[in-house]
C-alpha cells in the first residue's frame, strides 16, 4: 500500500489560491494578442523563425494556451520531455525553452525571458519519489528520464534529511516503474499523478513539492522559460509568453474539459491540480525559493560556482 504525503483531493492550508492577481490579468488581457495585430514583425533580428519548446505535461497547458497561434508566421511551438528540452537548448535545436530550473542554474549563458514558470507552494502532486521500504534504507534510486530538477531535488532531500547518497540509474519512459531494480523510483509529470497504480509495489511516497516546503518554507521552481539566443527580442517574447499564461488562467476550465480524459482525471480534479497545486508566476517568493535551491545545490556539489542566477534584466512580478 502506497502512503502518499499529499492527497490531491483535499488541499492543505499552506496552499494558496492561484487567483491572486486579477488586476494584472485584466491589464494583460487588454493588450492585443500577437495573432490579432495583423502582419507580425520577426521576433529575431536575424529574421529566422523562433523555435520554442515547451514541456509536454499537463502542467504546461495553461502556459502555452494559444501560443502556437501567436507564433504563426514568426515561429513554431513543439513539446517534449523537460530533460530533452534542456538538451535541445544547449545544442541549438530550439531557441527558447521551458526547461528544468536545475538546467538553467547549471548552464552558463542561459537567460530567463519571462515571469511565467512552473512553481509549487507546497504539494505538487505530479512529482513523487516512491519507496519500496523505509527511505533511510535506500541504496539505489531510479530517476525518471524526463527529470533533471526533480532528480537533483531527490538527491538533496535524501542526503540532507537522511544522510544517504544512493546510487542512481535512469528510468526510461518505456520502463515499468514497478519492475525496475531499485529501492526507490522518481516519477514526474503525468505518470506520477496516479500513485494508486503503484500501491502493490511501493510502501510509501514523498510529494517532493511538499517535502521542499516543509524543509524550507519556500516555493519550488520546477521550470522556467529561457534562451541563449542573443538575436531574440526578449522583451517582446516575454510579453507574448506572459499573455499566453494569462489566457491559460482565464480559460483553465476549458483546458481541463478538453484534456482531462487523456490524463485519467475528472474536470474537477484537473482544475484542482492546475489552480491549487501548480502556480505559474516567477514572483519574489519563487525567486527566493530558486536562490535557496541554487545555494543547496552548490553546497552539495551538484552545480559549479559559476552557476546562473536571475539575470538583472528579468522582470519579476
Please, could you describe this protein's structure?
With 317 residues, the protein is of the alpha/beta class. It has two domains: 22-119 and 219-299, Periplasmic binding protein-like II (D-Maltodextrin-Binding Protein, domain 2, 3-Layer(aba) Sandwich), CATH 3.40.190.10; 127-216, 3-Layer(aba) Sandwich (D-Maltodextrin-Binding Protein, domain 2), CATH 3.40.190. 33% of the residues lie in helices and 20% in strands. A six-stranded mixed sheet has the order 2-1-3-10-4-11. Strand 6 (140-144), helix 5 (149-162) and strand 7 (167-171) form a beta-alpha-beta unit. Helix 8 (252-259) crosses helix 9. The longest helix has 17 residues, at 234-250. The radius of gyration is 19 Å and the shape is globular.
By DSSP, the count of extended strands is 11
Q: What count of structural domains?
A: 2
Order of helices and strands: HEHEHEHEEEHEEEHEHHHEH
Tell me about the largest β-sheet.
Answer: 6 strands, mixed
| CATH-defined architecture of the largest domain | 3-Layer(aba) Sandwich
Query: What is the highest CATH level, the class of the largest domain?
Result: Alpha Beta
**What is the CA-atom radius of gyration, in angstroms?**
19 Å
Question: Roughly what fraction of the amino acids lie in strands?
Answer: 15-25%
Query: Can you list the strand order of the major beta sheet?
Result: 2-1-3-10-4-11
How many helices? The count is 10
Mean pLDDT: 85
**Model regions low in confidence, pLDDT < 50 over at least 5 residues:** 3-32, 34-39
Based on helices, strands and strand pairing, what is the structural class? Answer: alpha/beta
Distance between the termini: 42 Å
Amino acid at each position: 500500500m502506497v502512503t502518499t504525503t499529499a492527497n490531491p483531493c483535499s488541499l492543505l492550508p499552506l496552499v494558496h489560491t492561484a487567483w491572486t492577481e486579477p488586476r494584472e490579468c485584466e491589464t494583460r488581457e487588454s493588450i492585443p494578442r500577437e495573432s490579432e495585430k495583423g502582419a507580425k514583425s520577426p521576433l529575431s533580428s536575424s529574421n529566422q523563425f523562433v523555435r520554442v519548446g515547451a514541456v509536454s505535461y499537463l502542467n504546461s497547458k495553461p502556459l502555452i494556451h494559444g501560443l502556437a497561434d501567436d507564433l504563426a508566421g514568426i515561429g513554431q511551438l513543439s513539446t517534449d520531455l523537460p530533460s530533452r528540452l534542456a538538451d535541445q537548448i544547449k545544442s541549438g535545436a530550439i531557441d527558447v525553452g521551458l526547461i528544468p530550473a536545475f538546467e538553467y542554474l547549471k548552464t552558463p549563458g542561459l537567460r530567463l525571458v519571462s515571469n511565467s514558470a512552473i512553481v509549487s507552494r507546497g504539494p505538487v502532486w505530479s512529482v513523487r519519489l516512491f519507496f519500496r521500504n523505509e527511505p533511510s534504507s535506500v541504496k539505489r534510486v531510479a530517476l525518471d528520464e524526463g527529470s533533471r530538477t526533480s532528480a537533483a531535488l531527490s538527491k538533496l532531500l535524501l542526503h540532507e534529511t537522511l544522510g544517504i547518497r544512493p546510487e542512481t540509474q535512469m528510468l526510461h519512459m518505456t520502463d515499468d516503474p514497478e519492475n525496475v531494480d531499485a529501492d526507490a523510483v522518481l516519477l514526474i509529470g503525468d505518470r506520477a499523478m496516479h500513485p494508486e497504480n503503484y500501491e502493490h509495489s511501493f510502501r510509501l511516497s514523498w510529494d517532493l513539492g511538499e517535502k521542499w516546503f516543509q524543509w524550507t518554507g519556500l516555493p519550488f521552481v520546477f521550470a522556467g522559460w529561457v534562451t541563449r539566443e542573443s538575436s531574440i527580442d526578449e522583451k517582446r517574447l516575454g510579453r507574448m509568453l506572459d499573455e499566453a499564461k494569462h489566457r491559460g488562467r482565464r480559460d483553465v476550465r476549458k483546458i481541463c474539459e478538453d484534456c482531462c480524459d487523456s490524463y485519467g482525471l475528472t474536470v474537477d480534479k484537473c482544475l484542482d491540480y492546475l489552480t491549487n497545486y501548480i502556480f505559474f508566476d516567477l514572483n519574489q517568493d519563487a525567486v527566493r525559493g530558486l536562490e535557496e535551491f541554487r545555494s543547496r545545490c552548490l553546497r552539495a556539489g551538484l552545480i559549479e560556482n559559476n552557476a546562473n542566477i536571475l539575470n538583472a534584466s528579468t522582470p519579476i512580478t
